[in-house]
Recover the amino acids of this structure.
């Protein structure tokens, strides 16, 4: 994600900031702030890398995971939980679909771009069942590993079903990162030979992931336009809308700040310490408020949006380096990157040293829902990663409880 900063910089310079929606300055000031931002980012990245590798050390972490407490779950219970998760996901989607449009259960998918209207259009809208389906996907992999069988067609159909349910929420990155989390979990439970094959295909996988991100983003905007026009679009309208959007794809992705947002970072650098007081670490506890009922907090990205971009809908993430700057200023912000890199490395070592499936589920979620995306967003994204694994982990402990009360298999001599 850090590498996209160079793409953003080239785009801003080549277009002279004309299409940068979050730029508040004239071209001369914007270039000066861009140069300052890049120097700050480069030093921050260097210190982050030093901190990461200093904590990690030269010792190679051994990839050897075990079931841990999951070994106590009866295989029959694993099967029950897998089928139950599939059923809960299906029932949840059918409920949402019928509540949204009783005449067409697939309309929810066609209108996936209108995600901001879900609560208004669907009474009791929930995706809790989708989370249980995700838990079932993890358990399917665990069971296959336990009985030493390959993942068959039924598993890939299950993954496709999971993808379709999550994409119906309209959250593209959340959907793709969810599927990537499943893949990482499967990757680390695979044999070394299979892992090496995965590495060889990594460039292809990255290309496919990039294509999916861009395609789904364009489709989501077209879907939202269709919703605003009260639906009824035919193939001609869809193709016309998609064609127009593809012609403006650079502006849609870079100009709108869908990759690490340098203009937003420039705004932070210009105002904090000059016109706004530093936050002194306050925003780094915002993620915890997501787990406290009936407590509302204005995240840093939303605060930036409200203060300097009042016509914007939603938050404008300042990047994690921007958040460090807003909290501590340039000098402490750069050196805090060293600490941040060390923390990321420590989490990696702890998960792999623990070596249990639950630790791997948590690390897989953190890898894509937090470590990967945090250069673009802010530390509050940690709650998004943790929410991804809460239900699957609860699902595991449900299996332990059911196993404890389940009649034992008779043992025959």
């Amino acid at each position: 994600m850090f590498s996209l900063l160079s793409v953003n910089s080239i785009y801003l310079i080549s277009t002279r900031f004309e299409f940068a929606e979050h730029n508040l300055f004239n071209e001369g000031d914007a270039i000066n702030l861009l140069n300052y931002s890049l120097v700050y980012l480069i030093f921050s990245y260097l210190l982050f890398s030093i901190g990461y590798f200093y904590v990690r050390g030269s010792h190679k972490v051994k990839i050897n995971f075990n079931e841990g407490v999951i070994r106590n779950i009866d295989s029959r219970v694993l099967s029950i939980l897998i089928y139950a998760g599939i059923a809960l996901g299906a029932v949840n989607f059918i409920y949402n679909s019928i509540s949204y449009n009783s005449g067409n259960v697939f309309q929810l998918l066609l209108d996936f771009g209108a995600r901001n209207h879900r609560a208004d259009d669907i009474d009791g809208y929930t995706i809790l069942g989708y989370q249980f389906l995700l838990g079932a996907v993890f358990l399917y992999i665990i069971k296959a590993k336990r009985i030493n069988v390959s993942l068959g067609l039924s598993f890939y159909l299950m993954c496709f079903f999971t993808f379709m349910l999550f994409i119906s929420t309209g959250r593209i990155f959340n959907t793709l990162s969810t599927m990537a989390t499943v893949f990482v979990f499967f990757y680390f439970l695979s044999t070394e030979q299979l892992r090496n094959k995965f590495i060889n295909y990594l460039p292809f996988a990255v290309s496919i992931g990039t294509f999916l991100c861009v395609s789904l983003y364009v489709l989501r905007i077209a879907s939202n336009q269709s919703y605003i026009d009260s639906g009824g679009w035919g193939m001609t309208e869809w193709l016309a809308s998609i064609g127009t959007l593809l012609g403006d794809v650079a502006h849609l992705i870079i100009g709108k700040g869908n990759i690490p947002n340098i203009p937003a970072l420039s705004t932070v650098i210009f105002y904090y310490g000059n016109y706004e007081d530093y936050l002194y670490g306050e925003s780094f506890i915002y993620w915890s408020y997501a787990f406290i009922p009936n407590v509302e907090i204005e995240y840093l990205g939303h605060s930036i949006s409200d203060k300097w971009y009042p016509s914007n809908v939603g938050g404008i993430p300042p990047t994690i380096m921007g958040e460090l700057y807003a909290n501590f200023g340039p000098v402490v912000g750069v050196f805090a990157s060293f600490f941040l890199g060390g923390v990321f490395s420590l989490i990696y070592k702890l998960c792999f040293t623990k070596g249990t499936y639950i630790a791997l589920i948590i690390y897989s979620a953190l890898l894509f829902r937090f470590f990967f995306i945090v250069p673009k967003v802010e530390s509050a994204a940690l709650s998004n990663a943790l929410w991804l694994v809460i239900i699957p982990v609860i699902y595991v402990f449900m299996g332990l409880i059911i196993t404890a009360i389940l009649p034992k298999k008779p043992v025959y001599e």
